[in-house]
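Continuing the batch. This is chain 6 of the set; chains 1 through 5 are on the previous pages. Same settings as before, nothing changed between runs. Recording input and output for traceability.
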Amino acid sequence: ARVLGCLMRFLDRVLEKLGLRESNGFFEGSSASPSMSSVTPGSVFRRRLECFLKDPDTYTAVMCMTAFVVGPGFHVSGKEEAVKIVNEFNQRVGMDQLLFKAISEMLWAGNSFWLRLRESGRIVGLRNIPLPSITAIHRDDSEIRALEIQTITGASAKIDFKDVVHFYFIKHGNDVLGSPINRPLMEWRTIYDPDRNLSYQIPSYYDIKWSMEWAMWKVLMKYPPRHIYQFPRIGGEAQKEYAEKIKLMLPGEDIVTNQEVKVIDVRMDPRARFDAYVEYLDNKVTLGLMNSILRLFTKPGFTEASAKEANRLLGNLVTAIQRAVKRIVEREIYDPLLESLGVDPAEADVRFNWGIPEKPKITLEDIQRFYSTPPHVEPALTRSEVRKLLKNLGFPITEEAPESAKIIESAESVVIRLRESEAYDLRSAKDLVIDRDRGIHLTLIEGADWLKVAAITFDKKKWPKWNSRNAQKWFEENFETIKSILGDAKNA
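Output for chain 6:
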């Protein structure tokens, strides 16, 4: 037993040197198992990237499916303040482009990893972790614990998986990594021969396909007519000179000479037809990519009904991918984002939804119905809102300043006067500071049952950036709210 133990330890060290086993009990790669057998994930992901970038069928299938998934767009729902936080984050990180990259990686590599970037504990962004840069994936029985990556400088860095967003569609068996849609096309297979009691390795479908294309290229190079030129009476240097000139001849050119010459046409005829083999392999590739849309591009004779059925089948797969991505975005991006900002995700109830909600189409009849109400009923739309809607419909509506408003700018302040001083009793005027830091205060006049604004003053000493333009903008954005608050205060 002691000798056996020493032998096993020696074997472990040999396997470790060969990169086939990890001494720390973790394993790498997508086809590994808890028995510690492993493959280097960098080579696995590089292989998957090669199949994606260099195989036209795979590239088209992945890009089409990604476009189907991301194309409808998305919107966020939930509590207003939380939705505002999430939308600002989406805009900052470019969530549209991020999702396109993440989903395409998820399809061709099975996985997409994004590091949460934090400043003072708050999540401020996401950064993609390039798959070929991953040198080790540390795991336990059920999940990934850490990633090791090689940086551009060649240094090694270890990333705690708690700070990583992991996009994947499906996992098989005891794998902790997701599987790409084309995984069956990349795997080598083993076949057992019972007569000889031997096992054989069958190359992957990609290797067979690319080998077939290479063989086709070789055949095509042999099929064009070739010629042998014989000059019976020429030899030595003259023959070499003619040979060099013939090599430089373009297709369709003839040789002109006063010497005796014989031209022999050499042709090769195919001895066998491989149509059935090619079609079989093509069918397997199409099935392996799970994208029946490819047939619409390559096969003639599709009817409208069969095209609709192909779209329906692909639509079911797209919906399943969208649901998987939705859960990942909500649980691994939005919930941690809100928690880092002190917002309870359960109360915020933020949801990621595919598709962009359609805005109602507004007509003149709609505007008239909501504005023209009986005298005893308050209109649903104000006059300013009606003017804005009409302007959006294309009517040449000019900006309207409030009646009797006048802007007076001096070196020390900007004053928006709403009523001339003669219109009210100066003894009833009151000042109300509403923004001390920016120097904004109201001049109010009070009646028996009303409270109105006579003027708004913007103090340049408090905030030197005040001018007539931004004071006018502030007035237009806030005056209706101020009137509403004053009315409520008087009624109270």
